[in-house]
User: Which sequence fits this backbone?
């Protein structure tokens, strides 16, 4: 019964949105988009992502892009519900085919050649299911399969399949659809894959927007297996539920590593050169999560790696240091200096780390002389609360506290760092930290130095042993 209710609810909502005057769903998108934007946690993710990607742009520009991205995210959700109930006549008024679909190297209906279509996470990506209406020249015998994430709820799954396949596309399950996709490509058809960052452990380590990321290799693997051309397919938004469908050649070299790296470069170039496309991407997602869990935070590891080729294609000698690690040093010079060898190991293991030392005035000179940090922030004697609040605008990723004071913990929380790390003895509480390592009993003895405890803690959280 519950499954039927779900199906009925989706159908009623979709039909209602489809028949309402368009200004109404547009107003909903603007209001709920604004609501998403003002939620503190989501807003922090949005602005941090944009600050890492575009540190040279004004904060006002980044906030404008973030707000528009939230509005378009809601617009996308409403489109998912309403578009199955649009007539073909209405669809043709809303969308048009760019000449790139029928001409040039990215011609999508080229006969006798299999093609993988990489779909970026833009707001109107669901319009791909309408391609046969917008571009009727696509041959009926050229099958198009689209990967999607299946639902556990049977009624939701039935609704998605029924509405998305009504114009002749075939939905391919991410769990079971690989055989079908291979068969489509063997018959010189088209397989569309969401070109995603941070797909999980199967992703390949690469660089995107000047930062390490895990990128889906699925499109590249299909291209390599079948000698397929790799084409980016996207709808450039021209208004609310309006757009132009376009295709561009990403890579004609059917090699997985080449497809993955060039696709990242293609998407980055698009967003850097066009504010409309930049705002159209879903910035609210946490995409740059390379070893972000505490137990692996102090290293960079991935099952797959296309980094060497990626860096060569970008003309870089090394990975960019754009993962912001801030380290609060102890108040005593000797204690701070005992931490420097560990920081040197962290720089080597976490080769994308941009390190900032937070240091008391008496420790700052030694911190600078170590040469281990991109910069040293000297903590003021007065006005500390305001000082730490201002640091929110720099969007650090991780704060490591080598101090054990409640005051330092509270000050760290004021910075808004999403990951605040420290260590504590058994039974001790540090509520202002997000991640706390418990010191084992054998390391609690007085004769064990703080540096030895730090080393055990960092190695437990991924720092390679020496």
Assistant:
């Amino acid at each position: 019964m519950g499954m039927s209710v779900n199906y009925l609810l989706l159908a009623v909502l979709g039909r209602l949105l489809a028949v309402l005057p368009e200004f109404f769903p547009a107003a909903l998108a603007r209001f709920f988009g604004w609501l998403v934007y003002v939620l503190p946690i989501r807003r922090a993710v949005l602005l941090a992502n944009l600050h890492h990607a575009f540190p040279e742009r004004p904060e006002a520009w980044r906030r404008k892009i973030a707000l528009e991205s939230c509005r378009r995210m809601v617009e996308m959700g409403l489109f998912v519900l309403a578009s199955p109930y649009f007539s073909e006549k209405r669809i043709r008024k809303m969308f048009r085919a760019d000449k790139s679909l029928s001409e040039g190297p990215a011609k999508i209906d080229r006969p006798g050649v299999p093609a993988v279509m990489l779909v970026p996470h833009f707001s109107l990506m669901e319009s791909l299911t309408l391609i046969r209406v917008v571009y009727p020249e696509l041959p009926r015998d050229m099958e198009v399969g689209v990967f999607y994430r299946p639902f556990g709820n049977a009624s939701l799954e039935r609704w998605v399949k029924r509405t998305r396949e009504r114009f002749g596309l075939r939905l391919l399950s991410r769990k079971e659809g690989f055989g079908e996709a291979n068969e489509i490509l063997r018959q010189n058809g088209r397989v569309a894959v969401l070109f995603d960052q941070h797909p999980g452990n199967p992703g390949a380590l690469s660089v995107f927007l000047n930062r390490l990321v895990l990128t889906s290799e699925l499109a590249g693997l299909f291209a390599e297996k079948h000698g397929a051309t790799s084409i980016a397919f996207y709808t450039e938004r021209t208004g609310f539920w309006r757009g132009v469908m376009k295709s561009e050649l990403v890579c004609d070299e059917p090699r997985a590593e080449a497809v993955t790296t060039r696709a990242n470069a293609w998407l980055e170039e698009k967003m850097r050169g066009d504010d409309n496309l930049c705002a159209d991407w879903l910035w609210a997602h946490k995409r740059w999560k390379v070893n972000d869990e505490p137990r692996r935070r102090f290293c960079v590891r991935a099952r797959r790696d296309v980094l060497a080729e990626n860096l060569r294609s970008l003309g870089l000698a090394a990975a960019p240091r754009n993962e912001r690690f801030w380290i609060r040093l102890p108040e005593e010079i000797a204690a701070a200096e005992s931490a420097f060898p560990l920081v040197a190991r962290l720089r080597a293991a976490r080769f994308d780390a941009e390190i900032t030392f937070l240091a008391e005035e008496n420790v700052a000179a030694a911190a600078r002389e170590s040469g281990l940090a991109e910069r040293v922030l000297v903590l003021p004697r007065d006005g500390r609360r305001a000082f730490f609040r201002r640091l929110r605008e720099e969007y650090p990723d991780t704060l490591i506290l080598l101090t054990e004071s409640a005051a330092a913990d509270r000050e760290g929380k004021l910075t808004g760092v999403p990951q605040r790390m420290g260590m504590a003895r058994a039974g001790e509480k540090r509520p202002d930290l997000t991640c706390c390592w418990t010191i084992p009993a054998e390391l609690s003895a007085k004769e064990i130095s703080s540096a030895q405890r730090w080393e055990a803690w960092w190695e437990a959280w991924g720092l390679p042993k020496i």
